[in-house]
Batch of 2 targets.
Target 1
Amino acid sequence: MSATLTLLHDGRSDEFAGADPARPAISPEDLEVALGWELQPEGLCQGPMCVPVDQDALVGDGGLDLGVFADALQRPLVTDEKHDVAALGASHHDRGEALASLQAPDFTLPDLDGNPHSLSDQRGKKVLLVAYASW
Amino acid sequence: MINVPTILWIDEEGRIARPNDVAFGSNDFKEMTGIDSELHLERLRAWVRGEGPAMTPEETRAVQTLPTAAEQEARAEFTLAWWLSQRGHAEDAESHYVRAGELAPHDFTIRRGSMLIRGLDPMGEDFMKIVNEWTEAGNAFYRPIEPVSAS
């Protein structure tokens, strides 16, 4: 059975028609446009970087198997077949590398008046970042 | 980030000068948490005034907690559950919230942070139940990067 798959990834969501919810897959074109990876003879490539992948397992009748893609990049993929939705998380390896670089990742959040503020706006100042919750 | 409050120091160049740590802005909860807020505030004031050091990159990396594969899978499950909740599928979201908590039982931003939307009380018995289970198994609820015991 095919349906429209909603894929949650990298802080956004994309929809792909014709995907099998039991085995989420997308076309090579969608992989490139939505996820920024291209299938090459060397493997999955993003710019000059390529990751080896079992292409026999990756490529099927329904397109590129997202589970195989996720495994190759060490990214978690979790699914809900009933609602045809999947979430592709960030790789712990990539997150760890980014954190160990000690460069604080930029982000933008609104203040109480809705005005956006980015961490990078504070460059040149010392910043104390506090996360709290009122639950 | 696996719990709140969490603080982070970032220097003028955007570099992490003190990694995620537990610190309170006052001693209102000192009796409950055992954490003296003044210890962090004194260090913070000294750093801001240029009278005291931040951590070196080596010291920072030595106390950083880097994410595991299970934690990243928990965050993906939470993302999926939240998406379902926001679209009126609370019952179907529940198994994903539960799975996220199983994958990262120490991550109270997931476990406590999902309580309100699941119809549970993040300030009452439901919360105390998971905290007690966690601490009675020998785990700390707050995990500061260095001793911050109350005097």
Target 2
Amino acid sequence: MSKPVIRFQSPAHDERVSSRIGIWLAVAFGVCFVTGLISHGIQHSWFWWPSRPVHLYHLTQGLHVTSGVAAIPLLLAKLWSVYPKLFERPLVRSVPHALERGSILVLSGAVFFETVTGVFNVAQNYLWGFYFPTAHYAVAWVAVGSILVHVAVKLPVVRRGLARPVDGSRRRFLRTTWLASGVAVLATAGGTVAFLRPVSPLSTRSDRGPQGVAVNRTARAAGIVVPEDWRLEVWAPSGIRRFTRAELAALPQTTARLPIACVEGWSATADWTGVPVADLLRLVGVAPGAAVRVESLEPTGLYRASTLPGPHTADPDTLLALRINGEDLAPDHGYPCRIIAPNRPGVLQTKWVSRLEVR
Amino acid sequence: MRTVLAVAGLAALAWGGYLLAEFALASTRDAWHAGLWFLGGPIAHDAVIAPVVGAAGLVIATRLPTHWRTPVATGAAATGVLVLLAVPLLWHPLGVPENPGLHDRDYPLGLMIALCLVWAAVVAAGLVAGYRRRRT
């Protein structure tokens, strides 16, 4: 045993502490990874995704961001617990030891990358030049892979650590860690849990959006100009049908209470009124359940179009909405009309719709 | 069990590495930016955050009366976490898109109120612990 560089005395530097925090960190990152994968899969049409329950995506994305936030204090406490290992000398003892140390650098780099870019992205504070979803997704695999390898390497230590009870000062360190994690969740969860909004000082979502609902892209930012002779075009195998807004408003209307749930973890529920997409399909002789491509007036932009899959066009609550909370849609909410469907990522709830195209 | 975890982990690492290579080859600038963000975390933690935590812990453990140590350490941890989480909302040198209803709350005020509550709880816990200690 060589002489330590610094004498660490905190009772937190102990495998009983590291293993207990490690387990909760693995749970938090596990939830974060799975819910992130679900969202990625829906947006890339990897699997069949139902239109019910209405709030399922709201729940998975709320969990994604909340578990990521909860992981931050856990991560810092875990790293503090094992910090003296950074100063172990000799730096490298053998090839396996070098690989293990290297893998910890990859693990730490990946989880910091995910949590830090994650919270900055939630704040829409884009300090980087790259496209966030691609990088966040790729590094997520690196993070989860290095966590699994780390657990495989450390499993005997974890078992040993858990088998021994914690004493007073270590129990206090653990309690402080759980409390800090709880504070982090409470401070931010108002973005997705409506009743926490008044007590969540760092919630990204307020109630100051037009008509009480937050806006993720304004009409001005999207460069929307609604032409005087705007018509909704519905392209079907039988031909193209056009509807004025007055004609749409004259059709039987449905009102549904649905959330907009963003991949960035905020959500807002409203009463939407409009024409069920299923009814529009029937008017052009198509059975509900066919996939429909939705195009926006937005001239450019990554999310100017979306495809409503079969389960959603068949759902009677999937609306071409004209009104929100009893008023005509504000321009920022997609006037003249927008798609609102149950259990869908917010970026796919296309606004300023110009055309529906049966696939 | 360990073998299964290791094999699954290596497979995920390989897939992540492939995705990252694809990402990096598409743009040198993006690769450079992402690389800085990847290494920035461990460096900032090991060189700044952990030493600050250690120094704070040392002061708390050596300078404070026994019954104040746990409340103050817990308050300091909560403060650190709240401040770190507030950074992206308070500091945005490149600006943020103007989206009504999103990131438009009074964050400095909210953070101040939260910190006041945390430290009020710290003071209350410290006083209760001191009272209990004197009684026994």
